[in-house]
User: What shape does this take?
Amino acid sequence: MTALDSQADSAPKPAALAGIRICDFCGQLAGAGATKWLAAFGAEVIRIEDPVREGRWDILRGIGPYVDERRGLEFGGGYNNHNTQKLGVTINVRTERGKELLTELIRQSDCVTENFAAGVLERWGFGYGALKAIKPDIIYVSNCGFGHVGPYSAFKTWGPIVQAVSGLTYASGLPDQPPAGWGYSYMDHTGGYYMAMAIMLALLHRRRTGEGQWVDLACTEAALTLHGPALLDWTVNGRPSRREGQPHANRNTSPPMAPHGIYPCAGDDAWVAIACRDEADWERLKSVIGATWMADAAYASLDGRLANQDALDEHLGAWTAGQDKFAVQGRLRGASVPCSAVQRPQERVDHDPDTDGLWPEVTHTAMGRVRADGLPVRMSRTPWRIERGAPCLGEHNEEVFGRLLGLSPQDVAQLRAEGAI
Amino acid sequence: MSALAGVRVVELASERIAFAGKLLADMGADVILVEPPGGDPARGYLPFLDDAPGPDRSLWWWHYHTSKRGVVIDLESAAGQASFKALAAGADIVLESEPAGRRARLGLDYDDLRQARADLIFVSVTPFGRGSPNADAPVTDLTILAGAGPVWSCGYDDHTLPPVRGGGGQGFHTACHFAVMSALTALLYRASSGEGQFIDVSMHGASNVTTEAASYSWLVARQTVQRQTGRHAAAVATQGTQMLCRDGRWVNTGVPPRSPAEFGYILGWLRELGLEEGFPDAIFLEIGAAMDRPITYDLIGVDAEATAIFSAGREALALIAENVSAYDYFIGFQRRGIAVGVIYSPEEAFEDEHFKARGFQTAVAHEDLDRTFRYPGAPYQLPASPWRISRRAPKLGEHDQEILG
Assistant: This one.
């Protein structure tokens, strides 16, 4: 039996991160996305929310998309998507009893994670110094737009602001147009990925040395690492990326390719991406299209095609324009030329065999059965599991406070009556 | 001590996984980059040092292969296969992105290598995942992002313009992020169990789950988001958020102001700039500043006063933009507690005082050139186990002797 086959076998598989407990204040996507990964691999992620504001610090709690006509803080589709497999408790940190409960939870946790604005946890009395006093080897990972240190540490961000300030928005656009930017919070996703890496790196370090630490993750800084060659072109050669003719994001300079672009197809807002990596790809494209313009000496070399790329794109766009995008994809892939239809959500979610298994259906206590983003990895020994939906507000108060703090259902009811949870 | 000190990674050179290897190497893993005779094609990627081509002059190569050592092995020869197997037998992690046919033909897949190293972690990054019917389809960063969703959501309000692929190689980066997260997860599991495993990362899958609301709007509500200039693609059109400032640079104004404090700050800045006189709707900012709670979205377009206040806030943002530079706009609003961002080019961000103060710029010595260059720095700061560029990228076969003997 090969490793691949073994993934299909039905014997229960272990959870990679079983036994790791996260005291989690993360919300939105930038934070919640990080702890979603850990929870999917079996870490016990206890998401802590504020009962007074009904957890609405996380703006995704009550906003759409919705599964049906029901509205309210238990029906946010994005919230469910980013918080699968987590436990949810409420703690009112304004109260003394709430602070005691939180202290006890921290004492029993491996990590404290949050993506508030810089200084919020400190103001509650739970800055890194306090966390370390509660548990000396605690790992604390904070994630905010500009980090906790530096001239802009008090500045506020959302994903689009992070992307603007870090160069990602600028680098996504067409000539003579405003920046197109990213049509979503790419850096909420990606900041979450770096946060997950940071948590696991700190766990590995602690395993070896017994030592905890505070990781100060600045989402803008993580984003700045995503432009390496352009930044070195600046620091080494003095060439800025803000220059005539740039950005031209559907083209490629490192390495240069031509043709390389997104071309119109038949139908409403239908497009196809085509790239020729080298002369062999160009020859294969020629053999598929077989048009006389392709024999023009101007297109015979990469340098020629780069120098005449506008005209080349016109010709290629005229060829794609009358065709179905998937038909073009099929013809060019059949000839081993890199090509992909620009897929709509419905096409890639419901009709693409290469996303099979990527969209697990979870059970949410209020919403019912609903599909969510899965993870794009298969691990032969420790597969991910995403089966339970996001927690409702305080859904696991009895379970968590009972199991970890030894409180009875009566104690929990009393805490609720006092306004501590 | 580095978080990954003592972890040995063998990386089969490929542009698709170079970033994953760098992320591990810069955290202290001993990453050995295996290239074919003549070198990996990415040594020929632009830009070059002083624009002069050469196998050791590609800045692409410099960036993606920091902190690694490099060897040349001819995997097509029996001797080469034997040296690779010997190397893998001493490795904790093998990282590869070979074409499906080649891996099997050479006998260098997980099942071949784990015979000699039972607890090996083998990370395979392929365009569509192992076993895909499209396993042999050629891909680039552009085609991955086009098929997997990001491109559908990026571009302009004007849909006669093509959708846009965000720059920087983010399709490859996203797959690499998942490769590293998986490898770290597997290392933690191995530390507690002693067991290795095989990891199959799909590049297409990675970008498919990195589209925010595009995927889950369809999954949850069968809604299709539509691209818009400089802001979130959405099922229902929203108003623009990018504004052109006096110096011809752009800013992103994020979420429009709705709270009394925000209206107060905006009014205050209009006054400082002497713009209140020429802005009759300033009265609505005054009313907004005196409200006892923020305007909620459901009132906009329904309640006349709330709508007028909300509109006055947006118009004031545009008016201020016409009168200040993009940088001053960013700093001015952020100091007043309003989240906006200047749209920097990458090098403008790199030179900004904030990132300098955080130590983001990293000096890397190229002792062979007798020069030191500034590189992008740490994505995260782990003070007890710091990120560090331990060496410049390897020259072709630079460590053959040291590693292969």
